[in-house]
Design brief:
275 residues; alpha/beta; 10 strands; 32% helix
Length: 275
C-alpha cells in the first residue's frame, strides 16, 4: 500500500547470486554475507572464493548495478503539486505557494508523513538507497515539517541512507530573520544532518553564509546551501561561500547546490571560481 514499507530482513547467512552481468559485460557470481558483498568471482568453473553458501539465487544474466543516490530532494513537498498550484509557474511562485499553504494549515503533519513515505517507496522500488533532502523550517510553520519528516523516515532507516538538511525561510539575518533563525536552530536540535539556506535570497548574503557555517561548526554538522539558483549572471554568492570556507578553515563537508548562474559566466570566470 502507498505510504507503507515492508522491512526486508536478511538472515545472518552466506548467500550467492550466480550468473550476474556487470556493467563491463563480465558474467560473475556475487557472494554476500549478512547482506554485504564479500566476493565477486567468475562464473562457475573459474577460480571461486572458498566456502559454500547457505543459499543461492540464479540471476540468469540480469544486469547488476550499484544502487542509485538522490543527492537533492525536497521530500516534505513531495506529491503536493496538485494541492498547491504554482500561480506564476516559476521558482518563486512554487516556493511562496507551498510556504503559504503550509502556514495556513493546508499541509498537515499527517499529509507530510504520508507523502514522504509514498515518495520513499517509489525511490526504493527504483533502486535508490541514499537520499539527501532539504526540509523547510521557519516563520509561522516553525519546525513542523522537520518533525513530520523525521517521523516519516524512521521505518526506512534500515533500508535507505537518509540525510536531512534544514532549509530555513528567508531572511535569516537581522531582526527580521530572528524567527527563521530560531526555527533553523530548532531543526538542528531535532537532529537534522546539515544546515541549509539560500544566501542569494538574503539581503545580506555573506552574513547568512557565516551564520550557517557558525551553526554547523557548533553542532558538528555539514552545510548544504542553495546557491545562485538564478540565470542572473551578476549573482555569484558561490564566491562568498568558497572564500568563507577556505578562509575560516571550516572542517565540515560543504555542498553548493544548483549554482545555476555559474553556467552564465565566461570560461575564465568559471575557472577562477572553481580554483
Amino acid at each position: 500500500m502507498p505510504g507503507t514499507v515492508a522491512l526486508l530482513t536478511w538472515a545472518p547467512m552466506r548467500h550467492r547470486f550466480t550468473n550476474a552481468t556487470l556493467a563491463d559485460g563480465r558474467t560473475v557470481d556475487i557472494t554476500t554475507d549478512e547482506g554485504l558483498i564479500t566476493a565477486v568471482d567468475p562464473v562457475a568453473g573459474g577460480e571461486r572464493t572458498p566456502g559454500a553458501p547457505d543459499s543461492e539465487t540464479d540471476l540468469a544474466g540480469f544486469l547488476v548495478l550499484p544502487p542509485l543516490a538522490e543527492p537533492h530532494a525536497h521530500i516534505d513537498k513531495a506529491l503536493t503539486a496538485e494541492r498547491v498550484p504554482n500561480p506564476t509557474g516559476d521558482l518563486h511562485g512554487a516556493i511562496d505557494a507551498w510556504i503559504a499553504a503550509h502556514e495556513r494549515g493546508e499541509i498537515r503533519h499527517d499529509d507530510i508523513v504520508r507523502h514522504v513515505r509514498e515518495a520513499l517507496d517509489a525511490m526504493l522500488l527504483n533502486g535508490v538507497t541514499a537520499v539527501r533532502s532539504h526540509v523547510n523550517c521557519g516563520a509561522r510553520a516553525g519546525v513542523t515539517a522537520v518533525k513530520a519528516v523525521l517521523e516519516a523516515i524512521e521505518p526506512y532507516r534500515p533500508l535507505i541512507d537518509i540525510q536531512l538538511v534544514a532549509l530555513n525561510h528567508s531572511p535569516v539575518v537581522g531582526s527580521e530573520g530572528a524567527v527563521n533563525l530560531a526555527a533553523l536552530e530548532g531543526a538542528v536540535e531535532l537532529g537534522v544532518d546539515l544546515v541549509g539556506g539560500c544566501p542569494h535570497f538574503e539581503p545580506a548574503a555573506a552574513e547568512s553564509i557565516a551564520q550557517a557555517i557558525d551553526l554547523a561548526a557548533e553542532a558538528g554538522l555539514g552545510v548544504d546551501l542553495h546557491v545562485d539558483e538564478t540565470l542572473d549572471p551578476s549573482m555569484l554568492t558561490i564566491r562568498l561561500l568558497a572564500a568563507q570556507v577556505a578562509d575560516r578553515g571550516f572542517g565540515g563537508r560543504v555542498t553548493a547546490s544548483h549554482c545555476v548562474s555559474l553556467g552564465m559566466q565566461p570560461p575564465d570566470v568559471q575557472e577562477a571560481i572553481a580554483a
